[in-house]
Amino acid sequence: MSQKEKSFNIKLYAVAAFVAVAVFLAVVCTVTFKAKYTAFHPDKLAEVFVENIAQSGDGYNAYKNTLVSKNMKYGDFIRKYYIEPNAVGEDGTVLSDEALKSKKTLEDDGTLAGQLIERMYPVYKELIDTNGWDNYDLIFSEYIKELKLAREEIFGDRFFNDEVFFSAFEANVSSYSDFLTGTEDVFDENTGLQLSEKTVGKYEEVYGEDYSFTAKITSEKPVDMNEYIKDFSEKLPGEYGVSPEDISEVKKYAVDVFLYEGFSVAAVEVTVVKIGYSWYVDNVSTDTKVLYSFYH
Predict the structure, then answer these.
(1) Residue 68 resides in a domain
(2) Which residues are CB-neighbours of 33 under 8 A, at least 6 positions away?
(3) In terms of domains, do 164 and 232 share one?
């Protein structure tokens, strides 16, 4: 168990969560900006995609650069195909109905929400450590199943909506990143109260305190368009709203994650496709699992 998990202070959760979410949103904004900037440059897109995952184990936000997010905002995709189908009970009850909220839910000051996040973190970590991010269908499905059970036990009701999912899931994404990168001491700027303690991340344990990862293309691999389109057509999920005919160009890159020049800690092949004027990572054809295990 990591030091972060041992030092979890549930009484300070509400304040600490605000700080964590603020940092998390700042990272998301950076990723989004990079994605927009690199959408016209296939090589840079491939490198940024790999580097974002390698730096913090955050495939969740990296997937905003993929075909999953081509025709629908990523959050809307998750709502439509995972949250909404699970917001109706087997008996037909609409679980997002405010009337279902228990007294515990209505009076929660963040303490129970913190307990739920803490309960779900090992579930999230196990899913990522075992599967990487490429099988997002399994990750979302299994996570939501466990989340609903844990929430009912802690809050005493069956209420479930997108806020329940995203608040827990994104906090777990952030905690997993902290597990890899480590954290600094955090104090409340008004009270001086310590919100969290400095932790040593797995990357620091393995590669030293001054580690730095950089993703670079080492080669471009030839692509047989006919073979690619045939294989792509067989694997393409219909919910993406993408047709093989939409793709005008395909590139495949060998991308290495370097600790320093000449020392690679991980290597993946990234396929990117051009639709219209923009490039997207083809997550159907790209295997990123190795990017979640090179700290072992």
Answers:
(1) no
(2) none
(3) no
- Asked if residue 202 and residue 153 are part of one domain, the reply reads yes
* Residues 267 and 158 grouped into a single domain: no
Helix, strand or coil for residue 266?
strand
Between CA 23 and CA 36 the distance in angstroms is 20
| Matching residue, tokens 């990522």 | 128
**pLDDT digits (tens), the chain, 296 positions:** 444 433 344 444 444 444 444 444 444 444 444 555 678 899 999 999 999 999 999 999 999 889 999 999 999 999 999 999 999 999 999 999 999 999 999 999 999 999 999 999 999 999 999 999 999 999 999 999 999 999 999 999 999 999 999 999 999 999 999 999 998 877 877 887 877 788 999 999 999 999 999 999 999 999 999 999 999 999 989 899 999 999 999 999 999 999 998 899 999 999 999 999 999 999 999 999 999 988 87
Residues 19 and 101 placed together within one structural domain of the fold? no
Q: Tokens for 159?
A: 């209420």
Give the global pTM. Answer: 0.84
Sequence-ordered alpha helix ranges (H) in 157-240? 162-181, 202-207, 225-235
**Beta carbons within 8 Å of 221's beta carbon, 6+ residues apart:** 252, 253, 254, 269
Beta bridge partners of 269: 254
Q: Quick check: helix, strand or coil at residue 42?
A: helix
- Whether residue 41 is contained in a domain is answered as no
Q: Domain of residue 21: give its range.
A: 2-36
Looking up tokens 């990723």 gives 31
Sign of the torsion angle spanned by Cα atoms 29, 113, 19, 129: negative
Task: Report d(CA 53, CA 275) in Å as an integer.
Answer: 23
